[in-house]
Write a structure and sequence with these properties.
Number of domains: 1
Shape: globular
Largest sheet: none
Structural class: mainly alpha
Helix content: over 70%
Length: about 130
């Protein structure tokens, strides 16, 4: 027997959107504030690091505020596909890494953003 909690659907999606937005906003802000240092860490030029940071900040604001959620999710999906490519094919990082994060972290955020892309994020804060 299952309890019908479908009335929580919009609020669950909103909570997920807010948490995902916080993570991406923080990461994007770090990329924008320290593009040389962050770029060196991830193997990108400072210019490309700034571009990734802008994508993360814009995507985070979009999904948090409910403005063009699917576009914001698409930006963040692109970021995660790039991160996955680097971790799996360039660095050879395992699903769970001995040092730092494996790519399990990236898959979770890719799937969360795929959910936002597919559903439109449902409940919006503004609009």
């Amino acid at each position: 027997m299952m309890i019908d909690l479908s009335f929580l659907y919009d609020f669950a999606l909103l909570a997920l959107r807010i948490i995902v937005a916080i993570v991406f906003f923080s990461s994007g802000k770090s990329h924008l504030m320290n593009p040389k240092e962050r770029g060196d860490d991830i193997g990108l030029s400072p210019g490309l690091t700034r571009f990734v940071g802008i994508s993360e900040v814009v995507g985070a604001i979009s999904i948090a505020l409910g403005i063009y959620i699917q576009i914001g999710a698409a930006l963040l999906i692109g970021t995660m596909l790039g991160a996955l490519y680097k971790k799996i094919f360039v660095w050879g990082t395992g699903f769970y890494a001995d040092k730092g994060f494996g790519w399990h972290y990236d898959i979770i955020f890719l799937c969360a953003n795929f959910l936002f892309l597919a559903t439109g994020g449902s409940l919006v804060l503004l609009g």
